[in-house]
Amino acid sequence: MSLTIDVWFDYLCPFSVMTGKVIDDTGLAQDHAVRWRPYELHPEGIPASGKKDYPQGVWENSVVPMAARLGVPFGKAPAGPLPRTHLAMYGHAFAWRNGAGHAYDTAVFDAYFHHDQNIADLDTLAALAADTGLDPWHFRAWTDSPEAAAHHQATQDQARRTHRIHTVPTLVIGSWRTEGVPDAARLRRAVSTLHARSRVPA
Fold first, then answer.
1. Which of 90, 129, 196, 202 is 20 to 30 Å from 44 by CA-CA measure?
2. Does the pLDDT value for residue 200 go beyond 60?
């Protein structure tokens, strides 16, 4: 019986990128469903008195070393203020419904972390969508619609109230849960244990 690995992420979170690498390295996606679920860390935007970019010390001393150990290429921290990611997440729903979810997510992460593109801008997102084979007109129509906003709000409410998500990345597999970048060996053990339990007759 295949398990579902739910991963809550945000496009501005480098640890979400690393989590994707860990999952890829384990090979678990070959036998189990991995469901990427967007969770906006700053739904109200960054307050004027709050953090507007990545603290350089944290980026250099935490993000870059961990990424290097995992084989994830990260250079300097993205320039400029932290973006809102709700529009990119509207696009995530469209992309996954149209068979280009993984390619779109990868493109948005790369645009932000490697090319200093503004992923809060609809024109930028539509161009990324087109690069992944999606129809940019239909992508834009969905992303700019009230239906997309309502869908996104519903997913955020469900994440907070039903799944108690408050940070990313968060992984949930059945009764097992972890926050932060998972250890590959621990993740494999959890999946193996849960998979074995699912095969035991009630």
1. 129
2. no
What are the structure tokens assigned to 178, written together? 């972890």
Q: Confirm if 10 and 16 have CB atoms less than 8 A apart.
A: yes
Check: CB of residue 109 under 8 Å from CB of residue 11.
Answer: yes
- Mean pLDDT over residues 66-70, rounded? 96
The 10s digit of each residue's pLDDT in 83-98 is 999 999 999 999 999 9
Q: Is 199 exposed, middle or buried (0-12, 13-18, 19+ CB in 10 A)?
A: exposed
Strand, coil or helix: 184? helix
CA distance 138 to 141: 5
**26 Cα distance to chain centroid:** 18
Q: For the chain, which domains are there?
A: 4-198 (3.40.30.10)
